[in-house]
Amino acid sequence: MRIAVTGAQGQIVSALRERASEKAEIVALGRPQLDLSDRESVRAALREARCDVIVNAAAYTAVDKAEQEETLAMRVNGEGAGHVAETAAELGVPLLHFSTDYVFDGSAPRPYREDDATAPIGAYGRSKLEGERRVTALCPNAAILRTAWVYSPFGANFARTMLRLGETREEVGVVADQLGNPTSALDIADATLDIASRLLQDDAPELRGLFHMTGAGEASWADVAEAIFARAAERGRAPVRVRRIATADYPTPARRPANSRLDNARLAHAYGVALPDWRASLANCVDRLLAGPAH
């Protein structure tokens, strides 16, 4: 199975490279070869890749900056997703498209299901929702995978940031009133490979459409930070206290959903896929980050 993945440096493509092994050949396509905002570059790069499956993992992900650059975010996350979907349909190959919890406003009292009303509260969420709409309209042979709170041994993410702060601080203030499902990019990669294989082998309609895919279990950002520092202390790092703060105490240009929890039952029912509990996956990630740079 040959998988073309948009994005050359992101957490998901890095995890796919590591996890693919004998299951798949990963062809990572990034700029300048593939620019999501440029329809012709997307079409040319994906055609040249001669792939069996396309995974759209590239995105404009600067959530706060998007408030000032919504036009650019929309070109990449909205129109760009459409370019990928259009090309996948032309090539007749399945598409796995990654989306986000930010399509919801976070006001629900329970984990969000796929059929819940979307209501993004920021530019990033609006751009990703437009991407979902375009994929749905242009490529029936697609699985849209909403995920959230992604961390890994690769690139910039919450786990790496906390460990860096813990090198010089005895206490770190972390938001405690936002809830979500911490999700390992390595677990995402494992599931993505399984889903891609099923899409190739089975044209059942229930395998297409919208799915939520996050790590099992829920937490606040402060909970995640405490788990990171506890694991680091077990590995010899100096203890770090977490000061649990409110979102209002840490203002950002973009509002974050207070509830980012996603219900993964549909994915489990359709594919038999369930990601592991976040605590074990996070502990493994921390161990790797403490061991040195990821390759």
What would you note in describing this structure?
Strands 2-1-3-4-5-10 form a six-stranded parallel sheet, with helices on both faces. The chain has a two-stranded parallel sheet with strand order 6-9. The mean pLDDT is 96. It has helices at residues 11-20, 39-49, 70-91, 123-138, 158-166, 185-201, 221-234, 265-271, 278-291, and strands at 2-6, 25-29, 53-56, 95-100, 142-147, 150-151, 171-175, 179-180, 183-184, 209-212, 219-220, 241-245. The chain has a domain at 2-155 and 183-217 and 259-275: NAD(P)-binding Rossmann-like Domain (Rossmann fold). Helix 2 (39-49) runs parallel beside helix 3 (70-91). The two termini are 23 Å apart. It is of the alpha/beta class and 295 residues long.
In short:
The longest helix has 22 residues, at 70-91. This protein has helices at 11-20, 39-49, 70-91, 123-138, 158-166, 185-201, 221-234, 265-271, 278-291, and strands at 2-6, 25-29, 53-56, 95-100, 142-147, 150-151, 171-175, 179-180, 183-184, 209-212, 219-220, 241-245. It is globular.
Give me some keywords for this one.
295 residues, alpha/beta, Rossmann fold, six-stranded parallel β-sheet, two-stranded parallel sheet
End-to-end separation in angstroms reads 23 Å
Using the 3D structure, state the CATH architecture of the domain at 2-155 and 183-217 and 259-275.
3-Layer(aba) Sandwich
What fold name stands as the CATH topology of the domain at 2-155 and 183-217 and 259-275? Rossmann fold
* Total beta strand runs: 12
In DSSP terms (H or I, runs of 4 or more residues), the helix count works out at 9
Largest sheet: 6 strands, parallel
Instruction: Label the structural class.
Output: alpha/beta
Question: What's the CATH H-level superfamily name of the domain at 2-155 and 183-217 and 259-275?
Answer: NAD(P)-binding Rossmann-like Domain
**What fraction, in percent, of the residue positions are helical?**
40-55%
- The residue-averaged pLDDT reads 96
Shape: globular
Q: Segments where pLDDT lies below 50 for 5+ residues?
A: none
Our Rg estimate from Cα atoms comes to: 19 Å
User: How much β-strand is present in the residues?
Assistant: 15-25%
CATH class category of the domain at 2-155 and 183-217 and 259-275: Alpha Beta
